[in-house]
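Sample entry (238 residues):
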Amino acid sequence: MGNSALKAHLETAQKTGVFQLTGKGLLEFPEDLQRLTSNLRTIDLSDNKIETLPQIMGAFSLLKNLNLNHNKLSALPAELCKLKKLETLHLNNNRLTRLPADFGQLSALKTLSLSGNQFRTVPVQLCSLRHLNVVDLSKNKIQSVPDEVAGLQAIELNLNQNQISQISVQISHCPRLKVLRLEENCLELSMLPDSILSDSQISLLAVEGNLFEIRNLRDLNGYDKYMERFTATRKKFV
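Predicted structure, serialized as tokens:
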């Protein structure tokens, strides 16, 4: 991309607060964005080839939306955790295996997409995020859901297309969890905690494509209670 084209993008971004440069084969985060740390509310650098993010990331004090889908990121800098206004973070289809230790400091975060990465477990840092609504961890390599998940505040958790064979009963204690997606995993019916059905807030449980027939869900304790929640929620949306 020529300098004049980048300059035009920067000038537009200065006025609008939005910088969008997708599918341009960028190998690194544009250095010139440093000049706009106090302007930008949205950065979209999806569909590039960026491998690392600079420490300057932490200086975008007004940033609300960051889209880095389809890049080559294998790690995130600790500085990213300073983005106190960040509400939406899209990191689908990268090479991430973990989140920074201080990720829980992203106190405004509402939507987090981490589909198509290399996570082997549900990151416990997510449980510190009080305003988190939607977490997408589909298409990773997660094998189990740990006890710590009880602290998760999300309304929807997507774990489709992983390798999950074990789920902690603690998932039933998630205070706001309404939608749990577990399609195409490695779950036996006996590994699905009854309490998800009998004693949780979950009103949509998607478990197609596991190691049991969906109709056998009816045999589990609490199925009737689950169906009451499911039906009540459906009525709201009709």
